[in-house]
Amino acid sequence: MPYAFVQDVPADEAIYRRIKELLPSATPTGLVTHIAVKREGGLRYIDVWESKQAWDTFRDEHLEPVVGKVLGDIGIPHTHDNVSFEDLDVIDVWLGS
To answer: What is the number of structural domains in the chain?
Structure first.
């Protein structure tokens, strides 16, 4: 069953690019789509994964360690205090070519 979420983070494009550069270059196993957009106060991520387990694995094994390193390098504590996260109920995923 597909798993999706919206996450708002107090980061800018420079932080996002630094994180992305340290992640594996291959598309993560189970990722359907990842969209990062600007919003007031930071960025919004909209993700769809093949399953919650695929997301959890990528987050735990790759994303969280990289985010911790990047934030640590610039002196920002790696907490989720200012992060909002909302699961979404997927009814359809339609991708273009």
So the answer is: 1
Q: Are 68 and 78 in contact (CB under 8 A)?
A: yes
Q: How far apart are CA 17 and CA 70, in angstroms?
A: 10
> Which of the four pLDDT bands, split at 50, 70 and 90, describes residue 97?
confident
Beta strands in the chain, from DSSP E residues, in sequence order: 3-9, 31-39, 42-49, 84-88
User: With a threshold of 0.90, does the pTM exceed it?
Assistant: yes
* Residue 96 placed within a domain: no
Give residue 75's domain range: 3-88
**By the 8 A CB rule, do 90 and 38 touch?**
no
* Rounded-to-integer distance, Cα 84 and Cα 44, Å: 9
pLDDT in tens, 66-82: 999 999 999 998 888 89
